[in-house]
Amino acid sequence: MYFLALETPGGHLQAEILCKTHRVSQQVFGRILALTVPAVPIVVAAAILASAAILPAQSAEVHANPLHSDPTVREAYQDFYELDFPACIALLQKVQAAHPGDPNATTFVLEAEVFAELYRQDLLDTTFYANDGFLTGKHPTPEDSHVRDRIFGLEEQAERESEARLSRNPRDVDALYARGWARSLRSSYMAMVERSFSAAFHMALQAHSDEAKVLQIDPNYVDAKLVVGTYQYVIGALPWGFKLLFGFAGITGSKTRGMEMLHDDFARGPTTSAEAGTVIALFQRREAHYQDAISVIRTLEAKYPRDFLFRLEEANLRKDAGEGMAAVTAYRNLLDEAAKPGYFPSSHMELAYFGLGEALSGQRHFAEAAQAYEQAAWAQGSGAELKRRSLVAAGKARDLNGERAQAVRDYQAAMASGSDTTQGEIARRLIKTPYREP
Fold first, then answer.
1. Residue-number span of the structural domain to which 80 is assigned
2. pLDDT tens across 283-319, in order?
């Protein structure tokens, strides 16, 4: 994932415009909630648009760092897509030790560390990012200083290793690409965990610059199209007034061109194919093109049957598509399978319980919805933000079901988990006045 970077020849001016204009930076799809870049096939949970069949013919020639084809790297990323991060990290650390000074090897470890932490904190469910509340609200998460230091240390190491090679050959595309990845990963952590949007934004500007240079030097370095294609799409998707404003600063983009680049990466990218699909899926979900995403998710489930988040995403998409009880059934099936020892290498059942609550609430089954939300809140390992969201949602469902005393207890628990957060503030209001449907 990376925090969307906007950079053109007038780079300093654009950054100043975006940082000073809060409304604009929200519109840019989330400065884009640390948009998916490096390895989210799992993560930001995966809906991927079936595009390979409709792509125009592309050159078969693709360039990438040879390390991406290393058998140990491939084995590690199989673990990655199954959410078995400890096994993935152990293998990638062996690769890093065997390739000292190679920034790509260091970035592999960095990527796994970042997503292991995001998954631990329940920050990889697309539901969290499907609306702009992620950008505008207060959603503090507890930060593990040891994890942060390890992540930042790996990113700085990758930069040093890249720059050592670039000092000898400024056109070293492998080094440029690795530095861009490392910067994008750090910006994602800063945005999603620390919520340091301004600092993350500036880091992402540098990441985009690196990836754009890669494509200038070698247009067949397809993996780099992930960052650049996302940039093109987001600028092209802006409302007309913002595009006009950005146009004066030299910032231009095209949704069509952006999608072409993302689809090409999805079809041919040696290492970022699934990530490109995840970005496409997030765009499609926000644009309510659910069925396209569902059809591809099912393909991904067949490829990675032990990936909990792929299964979760199908249920999420069915819920958002208005499939009602079909979504409820999908969540319940997922929970039944996750309860079987060893069925998934890693599962966060609280995410499925929350989705089940959402689906049941949408069907006006408020008592069952409240129970599901409460199970999400009190599940072992439930992240701080998910816990608060679940408790507030449970309280609303209890209010709608005429269970005022239980609703107040849920609101109080949400406040106890973070009274100065967006959800804590909502809970405080609802303690005073029962929730009513809009």
1. 11-304
2. 888 889 999 888 777 877 887 889 899 899 899 999 9
